Amino acid sequence: MLVIRQSKEKEIYEDYFDKVYKTAYYILKNEELAKDAAHETFIKVFKNLGKIKQPSKISAWITTIATRTAIDIYNKNKMHLAYEFNEVKHVSVSDGFNFNKDELDHYLDNISPEQKQVLVLKYLEDLTEKEIAHHLSIKLGTVKSRIFRAKQKLLEQYQLGGENNVGK
After folding, report:
1. Closest by alpha carbon to 166, among 116, 100, 79, 112?
2. What is the predicted pLDDT for the residue at 1?
3. Are 110 and 154 in contact (CB under 8 A)?
4. Better-predicted residue by pLDDT, 32 or 6
């Protein structure tokens, strides 16, 4: 039985590590902290693997744990976070946003980790607002307001500065 469990854990780790790391990095903007968050995420996942009720939703469940873990680390290390984000050069986000990666990174620095969390779950994980509320154990209205406020803040920043405001 132990060998089967270890095999399953290894498979989960290999299948989801990149996604968990990228999710943590998206919030933390620091390679080492993102690696720490990824490893802490998998410790939590393996401790609670038997509690998952819908195996088909394991990806969203793991991503939720990753975002919560990254936010916890972010809050513990607010003053010490280094700024790094050089993977992709251009990103399209629905609702009329079309940023290059530097712009998006600049604007995301000015929204809360909680707002980043719902954006990750909505736009990267393609979860509905109701699913996000369930996974985060928060009210649907809270999810909607976080998404709305995050998008409003991104749009305001874009309208105020566009590319010319990046790095200032």
Report:
1. 100
2. 45
3. no
4. 32
